[in-house]
Design a protein that fits this description.
This protein has about 100 residues and is mainly α. Helices cover about 70% and strands about 0% of the residues. It is elongated.
C-alpha cells in the first residue's frame, strides 16, 4: 500500500464517519428530550455541533424541523462521490 492509497483510504473513512455522525444526529433530533451534553449522546453532538451552528444561521428551521444535518449529509455524500467515487477526481488522478 503506497502513501497515496493510504491517504485516499483515510479521507474516505473520515467522510464516511462524518456522514454517519450526521445521520445519527438526524435520528437524535427526532427525540428532543435526549440530553445531548450527556454520555453517550455527547459523542455524536460534540463533533457535529461546530459545523451545524453556523449553518443554522443561514438555514432556518423548516416547520420547526432543523434541516441542517440533512443538508450536510447530502453535501458530504456528494463530495465523497465527486472525489472518491468510481469517476471521482481523486480516483481518476491516481490511475
Amino acid at each position: 500500500m503506497n502513501l497515496a492509497t493510504l491517504g485516499v483510504w483515510t479521507f474516505s473513512l473520515s467522510l464516511g464517519l462524518l456522514t454517519l455522525l450526521f445521520i445519527l444526529r438526524i435520528v437524535l433530533s427526532w427525540y428532543p428530550q435526549i440530553p445531548l451534553h450527556q454520555w453517550p449522546w455527547c459523542l455524536v453532538a460534540w463533533p457535529t455541533e461546530p459545523v451545524l451552528r453556523p449553518l443554522r444561521r443561514v438555514v432556518p428551521p423548516l416547520g420547526g424541523v432543523d434541516m441542517t444535518p440533512v443538508i450536510l449529509v447530502g453535501v458530504l455524500s456528494l463530495a465523497r462521490e465527486m472525489l472518491l467515487g468510481q469517476q471521482g477526481l481523486i480516483t481518476l488522478a491516481l490511475r
